[in-house]
């Protein structure tokens, strides 16, 4: 994801306010920092000089420069440099001289040959939040560096191992059963990660140095230009392509209602304002309402809706708030998309809500951005922000007591969140396995699923989650959407997914013939030879993949994982093994999830 590239660059630059040049350590750069701190505090001055000595004798500085040149994500090098430099940053915060960081950082952007607009924009967007987090966090320097750059397991840190209370007296498990063939069915459209780029320019440079391309400048000789309908490189979707795909779905699909799991703005995360995000949200929600005028649309908030991207401040953060976004979402989701007004209070509180979709079917839309590791505010305090999981448990208990089934939608799949959230959420799903009949996420842009297993009997599957393919092409993807066939609206309905079909735009053909060409990519029960789509069926499917990891079925899975942009020959044994490991768990930091997956080709 583009954000990962920008965030790693930014966090290193700000934590390091770096002191590196082409030769190793630039003494005058260190001097700019050291000399700025007066001798009035001799102890602090001596501390800075001590760290300067460490800079000048660290072999990891040279390694870091080589890493940048080779484009290698060497996390150990990041962590070592962070361990050396973070104390200096804390000192600058203590003496209120953080303004020096920005100037030094911009010099480093030039020194490394980084795209200055991106580098300076990222610094401007995120520096205040990062500095505030460093000031507020209770983590030591080593712990903060290790967590920020994934050098240690999150479960090694007690502050991140929080738990929520879950009701006891779990009912006996009642695994779903197939409905009668003539029972009513529902058709549900899931849209994920639209990411419309309003600055997309056909013919512009599609293979650029910035994280997001297809926006400006002619292509270099021998380099591709942006296609009119879109480009499967580091480019988001033109507005007219999104409009055409949505109109196709409206005209050709039978749809009862729609789930949209968030992420509307483009990926230029280094250069976005609140006004930009609100324009994207308002424009696309108006397009959805116009294109599907008689359909209810239920949304979740994505990480890209925030400005800066990913940063959702928790209530303990007094220097920033995100009420501007929740006010806009409440107005748009209620007034434009038709949510009932009784959802407003919880949307304004934290961007989550619950409502009845059908008699007996309750929707719960979570804001999982409060648990995502890219939300740096969580390093100040990550314990169930806004008590959202407590709120979720209360509504699941209400649904259980009143005989309702529940669908959960959110942007981040639990596997991409902090480990504590994933493990708590897994406990919740275990407790309410009879009530939760569907989970629907986005964020990864790929076609995936995640399994949930019994905590006491890890061989027994209890639930699974669908991660839907994105509408955007970013990166190296065709645009796509998903249609679910669900057990329908009748008194004893399970509301489980019975089948699903993925539709993609063949972007190569669409650009070649200059007309939109959409096609059914696959029907899951036919393509994977599944009897049903219940947890036990998906568990058996994983076992089939494990038994023939290098076979044709896994090749097919990888092809659909990329929305038919790439075939299975591009995924070797290690790639296939990693993908199966991801399918097998909804928890981050799950140490034994890969034990049963063949490790060698």
From TrEMBL:
Biological process terms in GO annotation: ceramide biosynthetic process; sphingomyelin catabolic process
Catalysed reaction equations from the record: a sphingomyelin + H2O = phosphocholine + an N-acylsphing-4-enine + H(+)
Compartment annotation: Secreted
Binding positions for Zn(2+) 1 per the UniProt entry: 193, 195, 263, 445
Sequence positions that bind Zn(2+) 2: 263, 303, 411, 443
Disulfide linkage: 79-151, 82-145, 109-119, 208-213, 214-235, 571-575
Keyword tags: Disulfide bond, Glycoprotein, Glycosidase, Hydrolase, Metal-binding, Secreted, Signal, Zinc
GO cellular component: extracellular space; lysosome; membrane
Residues in the signal sequence: 1-24
Cofactor note (record): Binds 2 Zn(2+) ions per subunit.
GO molecular function, one term: acid sphingomyelin phosphodiesterase activity
Residue span(s) of domain Saposin B-type: 75-155
Stored Pfam families: ASMase_C, Metallophos
Function of the protein: Converts sphingomyelin to ceramide.
Family: Belongs to the acid sphingomyelinase family.
Name of the protein in its database record: Sphingomyelin phosphodiesterase
């Amino acid at each position: 994801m583009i954000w990962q590239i920008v965030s790693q660059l930014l966090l290193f630059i700000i934590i390091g306010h770096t002191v590196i040049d082409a030769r190793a350590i630039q003494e005058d750069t260190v001097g700019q920092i050291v000399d700025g701190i007066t001798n009035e505090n001799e102890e602090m001055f001596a501390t800075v000089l001590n760290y300067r000595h460490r800079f000048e004798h660290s072999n990891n500085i040279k390694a870091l420069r080589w890493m940048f040149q080779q484009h290698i994500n060497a996390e150990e090098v990041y962590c070592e440099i962070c361990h050396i430099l973070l104390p200096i940053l804390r000192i600058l915060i203590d003496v209120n001289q953080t303004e020096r960081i920005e100037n030094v950082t911009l010099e480093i952007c030039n020194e490394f040959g980084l795209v200055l607009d991106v580098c300076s924009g990222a610094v401007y967007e995120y520096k205040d939040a990062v500095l505030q987090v460093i000031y507020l966090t209770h983590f030591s320097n080593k712990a903060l560096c290790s967590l920020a750059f994934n050098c240690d397991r999150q479960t090694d840190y007690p502050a991140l191992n929080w738990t929520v209370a879950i009701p006891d007296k779990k009912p006996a498990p009642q695994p779903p059963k197939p409905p009668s063939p003539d029972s009513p069915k529902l058709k549900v459209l899931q849209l994920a990660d639209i990411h419309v780029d309003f600055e997309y320019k056909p013919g512009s440079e599609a293979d650029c140095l910035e994280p997001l391309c297809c926006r400006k400048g002619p292509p270099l000789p021998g380099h591709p230009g942006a296609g009119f309908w879109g480009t499967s490189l580091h480019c988001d979707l033109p507005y007219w392509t999104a409009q055409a795909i949505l109109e196709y779905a409206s005209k050709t699909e039978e749809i009862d209602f729609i789930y949209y799991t968030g992420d509307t703005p483009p990926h230029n995360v280094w250069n976005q304002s609140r006004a930009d995000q609100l324009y994207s949200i308002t424009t696309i929600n108006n397009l959805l309402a116009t294109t599907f005028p008689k359909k209810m649309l239920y949304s979740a908030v994505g990480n890209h809706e925030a400005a800066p991207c990913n940063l959702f401040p928790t209530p303990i953060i007094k220097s920033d708030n995100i009420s501007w976004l929740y006010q806009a979402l409440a107005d748009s989701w209620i007034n434009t998309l038709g949510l009932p007004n009784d959802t407003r209070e919880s949307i304004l509180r934290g961007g989550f809500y619950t409502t009845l979709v059908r008699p007996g079917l309750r929707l719960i839309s979570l804001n999982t951005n409060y648990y995502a590791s890219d939300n740096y505010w969580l390093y100040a305090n990550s314990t169930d922000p806004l008590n959202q999981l407590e709120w979720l448990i209360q509504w699941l208990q209400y649904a259980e007591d009143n005989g309702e089934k529940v669908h959960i939608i959110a942007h981040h799949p639990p596997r991409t969140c902090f480990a504590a959230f994933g493990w708590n959420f897994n406990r919740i799903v275990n407790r309410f396995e009879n009530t939760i009949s569907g989970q629907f996420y986005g964020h990864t842009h790929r076609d995936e699923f995640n399994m949930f297993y019994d905590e006491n009997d890890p061989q027994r599957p209890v639930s699974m989650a669908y991660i839907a393919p994105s509408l955007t092409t970013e990166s190296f993807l065709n645009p796509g959407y998903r249609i679910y066939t669900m057990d329908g609206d009748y008194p004893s309905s399970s509301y489980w997914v019975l089948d699903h079909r993925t539709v993609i735009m063949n972007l190569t053909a669409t650009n070649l013939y200059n007309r939109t060409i959409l096609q059914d990519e696959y029907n899951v029960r036919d393509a994977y030879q599944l009897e049903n789509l219940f947890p036990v069926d998906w568990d058996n499917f994983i076992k089939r993949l494990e038994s023939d990891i290098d076979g044709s079925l896994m090749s097919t899975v990888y092809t659909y994982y990329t929305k038919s942009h790439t075939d299975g020959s591009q995924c070797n044994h290690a790639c296939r093994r990693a993908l199966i490991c991801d399918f097998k768990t909804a928890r981050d930091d799950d140490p034994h999830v890969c034990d049963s997956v063949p490790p060698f080709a």
